[in-house]
Write a structure and sequence with these properties.
Blueprint lengths: L1 H40 L2 H5 L3 H41 L1 H11 L1 H5 L5 H15 L3 E2 H8 L3 H13 L3 E6 L2 E6 L4 H8 L4 H13 L6 H8 L3 H13 L3 E3 L8 E3 L1 H14 L1
Antiparallel strand pairs: 1-3, 2-3, 4-5
Helix pairs in contact: 1-3, 1-4, 3-4, 10-13, 11-12
């Protein structure tokens, strides 16, 4: 992933700003404390007799740490803001969260390899074979794995050509690499909206089927729109005519039942 390198550079920059700002802030605190102790040791008479040059010199010394403190605070704010943006981005986008996990956690996990790694990858592969198109969070929760562990093993499997993944809005979905093109196409382009509603209605009708007008009444949509969706579903081989009459009743094909099941699992 291209974003992995970008996240690592951005994170390194933010952490460097935090550390640098903290060190500067600590140094400024020590400097100010030493300045206060030095001033306490001065005699009141010496302070009263100080000439303009010494006053100006003291002013410069006293204002120096203040500007340095401002710079340290700016660095701390910049670093904290950068890390906060990564956290917020991970909360609102699964794709971004996976990128952050792969960037920051997987290098640590990869160093602590153990015998359970092969078992975890086997579980992931088996689950993906049965649930092609499942997204990251659902896969993680189903197998009871941690975010970092899931991201790490998925990255290894994808690098080895065992699985494939693709972006779907804010989600990232996965499937085994041996999946057929037809099934992958149906997963990537699931039946949704009105077409999904038509398949659901026909599924409930069983082998009897329903005509265009009957489906139109049940879903409260126009006949023109119904004809368009029926034509599209028939072309995709999701429905078939129950008879050869001019106005046949439509029933689901095996492909239609598979598409309906895939759409349910895809949207969960």
């Amino acid at each position: 992933m291209r974003g992995v390198l970008a996240v690592r550079i951005f994170s390194l920059f933010a952490i460097t700003c935090l550390i640098s700002g903290s060190i500067m802030n600590f140094s400024n605190s020590d400097s100010e404390e030493m300045q206060i102790k030095s001033n306490d040791r001065l005699e009141p008479e010496m302070m009263a007799d100080a000439d303009d040059a010494s006053l100006e010199e003291n002013y410069i010394e006293e204002t120096g740490p203040k500007s340095s403190t401002d710079r340290s605070n700016e660095l701390i704010i910049l670093g904290a803001g950068g890390l906060s943006s990564l956290i917020l981005g991970s909360l609102f986008s699964e794709v971004f969260k996976i990128t952050v996990l792969v960037s920051l956690l997987t290098p640590l996990i990869s160093k602590s390899k153990n015998r359970n790694d092969l078992l975890s990858r086997g579980r992931l592969l088996g689950y993906l074979e049965a649930n092609a198109g499942i997204h990251f969070s659902a896969l993680r929760d189903s197998l009871g794995l941690a975010n970092g562990v899931t991201a790490y093993h998925l990255q290894v499997l994808e690098s080895n050509g065992k699985i494939i993944s693709w972006k779907d809005g804010k989600l990232r979905r996965y499937a085994v690499s041996e999946i057929s093109k037809s099934k992958l196409n149906s997963i990537r382009n699931p039946v949704m909206g009105t077409r999904l509603a038509i398949l659901e209605v026909l599924s409930n009708s069983g082998k009897i089927g329903l005509s265009n007008s009957e489906i139109s009444k049940k879903l409260s949509i126009s006949r023109q729109l119904m004809s368009y969706h029926i034509s599209d579903l028939k072309q995709s081989d999701y429905i078939d005519a129950a008879s050869k009459s001019r106005r046949p009743k439509w029933i689901l094909t095996d492909s239609g039942n598979d598409a309906l099941s895939s759409s349910y699992s895809f949207n969960n």
